[in-house]
Amino acid sequence: MLRLFLALRPPLPIREMLFDLMDGIGGARWQDDEQLHVTTRFLGEVDPRLADDIVTEIDRLRLSLTPAAPTVALHAVGQFESRGRTDTLWAGVTPHAALTALHRKVDQAVVRAGLPPDRRAYLPHVTLARLPRSLGTSPEIDGWIARHAGLASAPFAMTHLTLYQSHLGRDGAWYEPLLRWPLEPDAGTAGDFGGFASDQ
């Protein structure tokens, strides 16, 4: 089984801007450069043949997406909570409309491939840190959010939709890009792809 997701990757200057936010909370597990992305659709654990079918549907979808590279900007920071404690810190991305529309189209494509629809509310963001349970409701978290509440960037485009495989390890997950599709005219074709079913 393969743990997969589809995402958009911010350009290097934006990722460098995000790195400047990554301090001030002891014990936080900050994301590295390869982990910075905006998830479009989490696919979860899928078998290689279903992964091939998903790629086929995204290939078909891509023809109707171009030109549709979302142009967005960083906007504020936030937190996700689980059982009354903060477990994730993130940077917001706005406006939501283009990203939500892309999420909806991608969701429809993967449903055609055989996955159930995504029923969760879609909130575009870039995850910056995972927080250990031991931090609880540390005042460092509130201080970090207050310091960076005014986060803003110049507009930027995310020009490719990328299929990632998530590998889980002792130190957290690391993400392997498997295939990407351009979302703007004259950006070439999808990257090399040998097929999951034959490679596993």
CATH domain class:
Alpha Beta
* CATH 2nd-level architecture: Alpha-Beta Complex
Summarize the helix and strand pattern as letters.
Answer: EHEEHEEHEHEEEH
CATH superfamily, called what?
Answer: Cyclic phosphodiesterase
Provide the gyration radius in Å. 17 Å
Q: How is the largest sheet built, in terms of strand order?
A: 2-6-5-4-7
User: Helical residue percent?
Assistant: 25-40%
Counting H and I runs of at least 4 residues, what is the number of helices?
A: 5
The counted number of beta strands is 9
Report the sheet with the most strands, covering strand number, pairing sense and barrel closure. Answer: 5 strands, antiparallel
CATH fold field value: Cyclic Phosphodiesterase, Chain: A
Counting structural domains, the number is 1
SSE-based structural type: alpha+beta
Q: Estimate the global geometry from the Cα principal axes.
A: globular
Oligomerization category of the chains in this entry: single chain
Structure description:
This protein has 200 residues and is of the alpha+beta class. The chain has a single domain, classed as Alpha-Beta Complex (Cyclic Phosphodiesterase, Chain: A), CATH 3.90.1140.10. It is 28% helix and 34% strand. The protein is built from 5 helices and 9 strands; from the N terminus they run βαββαββαβαβββα. Strands 2-6-5-4-7 form a 5-stranded antiparallel sheet. Strands 3-1-8-9 form a 4-stranded antiparallel sheet, covered by helices on one side. Strand 8 and strand 9 form a beta hairpin. Helix 2 (48-65) packs across helix 3 (97-113).
